[in-house]
Amino acid sequence: MNTHPPSRPASQGFSLPAPERLPMLPAEAMSAAQREAAEALIAGPRKAVFGPFIPLLRSPALMSRVGQVGEYLRFDSVLEVRIRELAMCLVARHVSNQFEWLMHAPLALKAGVPQDSLEAIAAGRYPHSTAADEAAMVDFVTELLQHHGVSDSSYAAALALFGEQGVVELTTLVGYFTMVCWVMNVARTPGQPQPDFSALAAFPA
């Protein structure tokens, strides 16, 4: 994972270099509703219009409502930050989204996720972890992404560690980040380079 940072944004998608489909709108091109939605986002904890909110700005009411859901899941969820960030990395790898990977892999590392776990995820391998809560979450999220549901054993393990509210919020977190990754994949929203973190390779690597 430790590499020289790319000199330019990491392109979304792996077939051929392609232009961003829905780039940031210049201020003079925004409608009043778009400007209002952008200003509200800037005034909130995100402090800027970036990532999925760039294409979502084409639908300002939707952007605002999506942003409120994401704000709760990222900043106010009952789940520990380390668990949330690792779950977001699993989603980003599953849908091969550069923006969310480059944003959340460094945050996961800072929150205490082992680097070898992140390297395993980037390579498409199971991230073996000694932390019981990480292992239970990885099993839950991996099954959910691959099979659109979870086994009784994985549900029971997650329930014991995170409670009913935590299980519901973890499931919603996976769905939310899958959704915004899809929006960026379609829009070809690039990821922003991060020191010591390389962009995802084509999956499977």
Tell me about this structure.
With 205 residues, this protein is mainly alpha-helical. It has a domain at 81-181: AhpD-like (Up-down Bundle). It has 8 helices and no strands. Helix 4 (81-94) runs antiparallel to helix 5, helix 4 packs across helix 8 (152-187) and helix 7 crosses helix 8. It is globular.
Keywords:
205 residues; mainly alpha; AhpD-like; 59% helix
Tell me briefly what this model is:
With 205 residues, this protein is mainly alpha-helical. The protein has helices at 32-43, 53-56, 60-75, 81-94, 98-111, 115-122, 132-147, 152-187.
CATH class of the domain at 81-181: Mainly Alpha
**Roughly how many Å apart are the termini?**
13 Å
The value of Rg in angstroms is 17 Å
* Overall average pLDDT: 91
**Uncertain stretches of 5 or more adjacent residues:** 1-6
Q: Structural class, from secondary structure content?
A: mainly alpha
Topology-level CATH name of the domain at 81-181: AhpD-like
Query: How much helical structure, as a percent, in the residues?
Result: 55-70%
Order of helices and strands: HHHHHHHH
Give the biggest beta sheet. Answer: none
Number of helices: 8
Number of strands: 0
Strand percentage lies at under 5%
User: Which geometry do the CA atoms define?
Assistant: globular
Return the CATH architecture of the domain at 81-181.
Answer: Up-down Bundle
Give the CATH H-level superfamily of the domain at 81-181.
AhpD-like
Topology, element by element:
Elements: H1 32-43, H2 53-56, H3 60-75, H4 81-94, H5 98-111, H6 115-122, H7 132-147, H8 152-187
Helix pairs in contact: 1-3, 3-8, 4-5, 4-7, 4-8, 7-8
